[in-house]
Design goal:
The protein has 12 helices and 34 strands. It is of the alpha/beta class. It has an 18-stranded parallel β-sheet that branches. A 7-stranded mixed β-sheet has the order 9-12-17-22-27-30-31, with no helix packed on it. Helix 8 (about 475-485) runs parallel beside helix 10. The radius of gyration is 59 Å and the shape is elongated.
């Protein structure tokens, strides 16, 4: 590892400027900044030792009070509590403490109470030495704790030497339980750039902190070199208590300069020319990202590059980022991966720093491939410092207070999905809405986004509630009704059972009630099957009249044997008739017949004509209304018997009459 002397000179300039002094300090609605500053909370209560902020204007007022060139207020011995989330609304921010370690720095305690300051914005250009982060300088015991800076946007393209999202420079202060995200970028070089802090010096302690920031250094000129770190850019002028403990980095770092030192936790610690400083303690930290790249892979370390390594119990990736190759010939000591920790050998005369090839980095911790493994979490918990509680996080372990990186509770979502998948999707017309709501579930939400996760569960539940069953199939019912309608109910003894079954049909049943619909169809079919035709109507026989009808001229009479008849009267009226009358004349009681009575054997009977059936045609019956003919009305034998009976009767009367006359 080599680094231009210019970086060391930058560090030296800062070291020479250092004079030990003291430092600084830091609800759940959101207050949006209007760009103004409010200092009344202090000017009217100067002797108070505690202040509570609920507005972004009060925070801007703090910057105004600390940065006052004539009457700067350091707030040493005072504590400020943030009682509310603040949104800085993308307005240009002026950092709190725009001086140095000699003045205009924050030395109180700022307790964010785990509230968020969102949308910090600071873009600067030019040669002026200005500050960039939320805090510019924290010194002389100043403390920042329990604070989250979310979605920052910082572009430090000015003459300043330091740039960090939370603070540019912490000198002899404490940063505890803080988190940053967003972007910090330097395009002009000559800076110490960090996702959390730009530079730490003296007895500063950083513990329980984390960052998901994107850290960018684009300057490639070898005369304008940056030192870049995921958490902290550079550390100089260390003290015995200088430390970075229980921290993690999960963001990304990129650097375009081949001479820049790049580290996941700390960019570098070169110390000063005397080389008698103790160095920085780095313990129980984790780099949980592979997104660290640079123009020179040999100058990149997962954890740090330091003159005096005091690195223990740390965790880093076991392979480099995709697309990065460290071949054995060019990088014989790397073994195909970035170094986790490089022990620097500084040649002040040559202005270079290189890695000691004899240093065994295995004493610094462990390389892993799976940051979510139980072993990784267990190791961090075992080695955690006082007051730090590691828990399982999204993609890697984090801290118990870090709602932004602790997985949200998906219990309600899982329960809703279980309900949905237990349903038979084919029964519903709109089950696709349930599938869409399930497919919309995002499993990467954090505890801070619990309301969004709860909304996912509700969306699934609402989709289930809105489900509509498919309609039942009434095809069989309709077919049965059609059969019934095709019948003439007058042909049946009792059609009411069919009408009742049809009337009992209930429309609008859904597919889960298909059995009921099928039962309706069966009821109709059963009623149809039970139908009985009315009894066949018997047409009454027409009695033969006593008077023999005149035979129809066209009908040939059927000759029937006739009984012996009475003698013909003496005088028969002339007639055109061709047949004898059907009625035998009654004998005249007052005159005797002229004819001599003849013996019975000689009497010639008058043939009786055969009766001709009525010429009126019978109606043609309908196929279903056919009335069967009664056997008594259609049998020729019956007619013959009837005629014989009548003939016999006439004969008997004639005989009786003759005997009576002979007895006179």
């Amino acid at each position: 590892m080599k680094k231009k002397l210019l970086s060391l000179l930058l560090a030296l300039c800062l070291v020479m400027a250092l004079v030990p002094m003291t430092a600084f300090a830091e609800g759940t609605s959101v207050d949006n900044w209007d760009g103004t500053a409010d200092t009344s909370w202090y000017t009217e209560h100067k002797t108070d030792t505690e202040y509570h902020f609920t507005t972004a204007e009060q925070l801007a007022g703090l910057a105004q009070l600390v940065n006052d060139k004539t009457a700067s207020v350091s707030f040493e011995g005072k504590t400020i509590y943030l009682d509310n989330d603040l949104d800085l609304s993308g307005c240009q921010w002026t950092p709190i403490g725009n001086g140095g370690n000699f003045g205009r720095y924050f030395a109180g305690t700022f307790d964010g109470q785990y509230h968020k300051i969102m949308n910090l914005y600071h873009h600067s250009t030019g040669d002026e030495l200005i500050r960039n982060g939320l805090f510019g300088v924290v010194s002389d015991g100043g403390t920042l704790k329990n604070l989250l800076v979310i979605d920052a946007d910082i572009a430090s393209n000015d003459g300043s030497l330091l740039a960090g999202i939370l603070a540019d420079w912490v000198n002899g202060g404490t940063v505890e339980n803080c988190y940053t995200s967003g972007k910090i970028e330097n395009n002009v070089g000559d800076k110490f750039v960090g996702g959390l802090i730009g530079q730490c010096t003296w007895s500063t302690q950083v513990k329980g902190c984390a960052s998901d920031a994107t850290v960018i250094s684009t300057e490639s000129d070898e005369d304008h070199v940056d030192t870049v770190g995921g958490l902290i850019g550079q550390w100089e002028n260390s003290a015995d208590s200088s430390s970075i403990t229980d921290c993690w980095f999960g963001g990304s770092v990129s650097c375009n300069n081949i001479y820049s030192a790049v580290g996941g936790i700390l960019g570098a610690n070169f110390e000063n020319f005397s080389g008698n400083k103790p160095g920085v303690i780095i313990k129980n930290c984790i780099v949980a990202t592979k997104n660290i790249t640079g123009a020179e892979p040999g100058n990149i370390t997962w954890i740090t590059a330091v003159v005096k390594p005091h690195v223990t119990d740390c965790i880093w990736p076991d392979t480099p980022p995709d697309g990065v190759t460290l071949d054995e010939e060019t990088y014989p000591d790397n073994k195909g991966n970035y170094l986790a920790v490089a022990k620097l050998v500084v040649d002040w005369d040559a202005g270079t720093a290189s890695a000691d090839p004899t240093f065994d980095q295995s004493s610094c911790g462990t390389a892993v491939s799976n940051f979510t493994s139980a072993d990784v979490l267990a190791g961090l918990q075992t080695n955690a410092g006082a007051g730090v509680e590691w828990v399982a996080g999204i993609g890697h372990p984090t801290f118990v207070w870090d709602d932004n990186n602790i997985p949200a509770d998906y219990t309600a979502v899982d329960a809703a999905i279980a309900r949905a998948t237990a349903l038979e999707s084919s029964l519903y017309t709109n089950y696709s809405a349930v599938e869409d709501s399930i497919n919309s579930v995002d499993r990467a939400k954090s505890k801070a986004q619990q309301t969004e996760v709860d909304a996912m569960a509700k969306a699934i539940e609402d989709a289930i509630t809105a489900l509509k069953y498919k309609e039942a199939d009434y095809t069989k019912v309709d077919e049965a009704i059609a059969k019934a309608n095709a019948l003439n109910k007058d042909n049946y003894k009792d059609f009411s059972a069919v009408e009742t079954a049809v009337g009992a049909v209930v429309r609008g049943k859904n597919i889960t009630e298909q059995s009921k619909v099928d039962a309706m169809a069966k009821a109709i079919e059963d009623a149809l099957a039970a139908l009985q035709y009315k009894d066949a109507v018997t047409t009454p026989s027409t009695p033969t009249p006593t008077k023999t009808p005149t035979p129809v001229s066209t009908a040939a009479p059927v000759q029937t044997p006739a009984p012996v008849s009475a003698p013909a009267p003496a005088k028969t009226p002339a007639s055109n008739r061709t047949t004898a009358p059907t009625k035998t004349p009654t004998p005249n009681k007052t005159s005797a017949p002229t004819a001599t009575p003849a013996a019975e054997s000689t009497a010639t009977p008058t043939p009786a004509p055969t009766a001709t059936p009525s010429s009126t045609p019978s109606p043609t019956p309908e196929s279903q209304d056919t009335i069967p003919q009664d056997s008594h009305t259609s049998s020729p034998a019956l007619w013959i018997i009837l005629i014989l009976v009548i003939g016999g009767a006439v004969f008997a009367i004639a005989v009786f009459g003759k005997k009576k006359k002979n007895n006179r």
